[in-house]
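Re: the request from the purification team.
They wanted to know what the chain is likely to look like in 3D before they choose a buffer screen. I agreed to run a prediction and write the result into the notebook, where they can find it.
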Amino acid sequence: MKDKWEEKLFYMAGQEQIMMPDSLADRIDEILCKPKRGKFHMSIRKSLILAAALVLLCSATAVASVGALRERMEAMNRERMELYFTQIYESKIGIDNYNRSYSDSEKTRMEALKETYEKEAHFPKGEITMIEQAEDYKGRGVAFLGATSSFFFPDREMSDEELLRIIDFLHKRDYSLQKMNEMIAAGEAQMPVIEEKEIEATGEKLLATDAVYEPAQALTIPYKGELELDMTIAAGRNELFLGGYNVVHRMEIGSSDSEFFFDDFGMETRIMAMCQDTNGDVYMALLQWPDETDAEKRTLAVWVVDREGVLLRKMDLTPYIAPERQGIIRRMVMDEQGYLYLNVSGIKASGQGLECGILVLDKEGNYVSTITSDEYALRTLGGLSVGKDGKVYTYIENFYDPDNPLKNIMGIASLDVEKGTLGDIYYDIMPENASIMIDVIAQGAESDFVFWGYDGIFTYNLGDACAVSVLPPYEAPCDWEGVRCCALPDGRIVFADIGDYRIEEHPLGKRLLAVPEKTCFYYVPGMKTD
């Protein structure tokens, strides 16, 4: 099963039934298969968004094939098209987001106005307002912040004119995206050059104090170490563990440098997830290739090393993976009883459309239980956390419905190890405009939980009707695209933002290696700090 997020995009694209020109099809293939070097880099998520959008947004040309709408689109000058195009590439967030949801009335009127816009040339009298930063929006009219793909709506009901301006903006942006890609494929235009902005680092005097351990303390720390970060960062008690290819580093909270921790894997290894127990032992979920000539033959295991980096034991996870699947672990946590919880895709279990399940082992690697659900979907990037009540919680959502692909209901649930089932369910707790899966769940400093996803950072207290946004996407300190993240015990979310990669040839395929001097760590409080 594809990720629901990806399914939704390509479902929408598929509804258009558009035949693409060969040049555009080639451009999509280039975006997905040929990552760029240098200043421009597009993450997998943003690549999928753009590729799906290119298919979907060809409809702008199809719709604009006759009459006034075509003339309106073609009347845009090159400068305007480049503006729309560059906004997409520079956006920190891979999807449009909003300061509030559309009301039911606005949704209904939006659908009707879209039809009159496309079929009857019912155009707005003005245009949406472009702003440079969120603070520029003063609550009047409709505005768009390109840096984070954020729409700002007034608190009142929007007028038809305002809704038409949104529709007009989307059509112009969609048309510009397609035309600029066609021009680039034909050699008539070039990819935009994104200027590097100087990062304002947190002061060294503050970093040398205990203030770095305060839950409300935000930090911006450019990395000065040598590790070429791969997929994983994880939080220990007072430190971070960083995974590279075949190596793990350790970095103190607030530090800008990391030190070697472990690399004695003996074979090609990617570190998929890590956690630390109360004794300081580090558990590492590993994807390994015993034979570098065969990329298909890989194994999944958990290795345990002590706080000094000495290997203690290995846990083979092969018996728990379905023969036709190749398992992946992206989240793991250990509870107070010493049970290890692994969010595993490809696990042997029953359930409709099963994407993944929770495998529970004891400290020695002995099987305890497998937790799945026939009612709710568990996702590999669903996050795991020990709550303040000592129970382990995970992210849940509704199963993918091809008849209603945009329906996305999210929540969390505790895990019942003895029964092998979900325990307490807290469902449909995210605001209406929260549409993308939650990646990290952790205890909050002033709340039961803090969540991070593509819709920002939220807090939640068990029993409340809805989670509360404490950091909307338009206040993102760094790119959400391709960012590595984890949660500290104090409720802060740590992001490792990778500004550039280098490509390395390898027998198992090309590697994308983070350029250390282009990596920056952001510590973001999981609470309101105004």
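For the purification team: Confidence is low (pLDDT under 50) at residues 1-49, 55-65.
Please add any questions underneath this entry.
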